[in-house]
Amino acid sequence: MQPNIKILERCSTPRGEIQLQYRNNNYEIISNGTFLMATYNGESERLMVKASLDCVHKPQKILIGGLGVGFSLSEALRSNRVEEVVVVEIEEKIIEWNNLYFAEYSDHALSDSRTRVVKADLLKWMQETNEKFDVICLDIDNGPDWTVTEANNSLYKEAGLNTLLGLMNPEGVIAFWSANSSEAFALRLSEYFNEVEEYTVEVERGVPDVVYIAKLPK
């Protein structure tokens, strides 16, 4: 272990091991040995939400898949046009860590009266809910080509996209965060939506983060 890393908590879940560590004045979450998220940067997560809100005339109800460290939720709550943000997060520990450690990084977003956190598997929850959303922002894994949790693959496939369309208001948008560009996924989105935009955000190391925004369902 690197000397500047302090492991704060490590626990087992049905999806494997999840670890919270503190390094260089920031928190990092590791899932099954793979880096998942951290309290530094957050530019691409914020861009995903801001660009999505800009596409919608009345973005009143927002769905965020994956709480992360709260960057996406915090960005959604910056808009006074937003009336409610539903955040679906599968890991109880991530919700707990947001309350205990990440609040200052997310402007205490979980305490906002417009926030509703649902502890659930997003894929199952999408099948069961009858709610509709103006903006859907999805960041439950590392993207269509590199999922830490194998079951999340279906979110980016035909079944997942069809389910998402059922949650979307007619003039709404859906955004996907990805740790890398995926030409195949962009093409798949174009089969379901008339407009697909790809945003890239440079990172300090490695390939840029990517955000896909899809609107105008076919």
From TrEMBL:
SUPFAM superfamilies, per the entry: S-adenosyl-L-methionine-dependent methyltransferases (SSF53335)
Alphabetical list of Pfam families matching this protein: Spermine_synth
UniProt GO molecular function: transferase activity
Domain PABS: 1-218
Active site: D139 (proton acceptor)
InterPro entries attached to this UniProt entry: PABS (IPR030374), SAM-dependent_MTases_sf (IPR029063)
Domain of life: Bacteria
Alphabetical keyword list: Polyamine biosynthesis, Transferase
GO annotation terms (biological process): polyamine biosynthetic process
Keyword Transferase in annotation: yes
Keyword Transferase: yes
Family classification: Belongs to the spermidine/spermine synthase family.
Identification of the protein by name: Spermine/spermidine synthase
Native source species: Brevibacillus laterosporus
Lineage, broadest ranks: Bacteria, Bacillati, Bacillota, Bacilli, Bacillales
